[in-house]
Amino acid sequence: MDAFKRNTIVSSITGYHDSDGGNAEAFAKKAQDLDVVIEAVFENLDLKHKVFGTVSGLVRDDCVLATNTSAIPIEKVAAGIDKPERVLGMHYFSPVPSMQLLEIIPHAGTNKESMSKAFSVGIKQGKTCIEVADVPGFYVNRALAPMMAEVAPLFEDGVTPKQLDEAILDLGMPVGPITLLDEVGADVGLHVQHTMLADSTMGSRMAGAKPEMLQHLVDQNWKGRKDGKGFFVYKGKKKEPHQPVLDYVEKSIKQRDAELTKEQIQDRYLSRFVNEALICLQEGILKSPADGDLGAVFGTGFLPFTGGPFRMIDAVGAQLYADKLSRLADEHGDHFAPAQLLLDHAKAGTKFHP
Question: Which of 10, 145, 185, 317 is the most buried (most CB within 10 A)?
Answer without folding.
Answer: 145
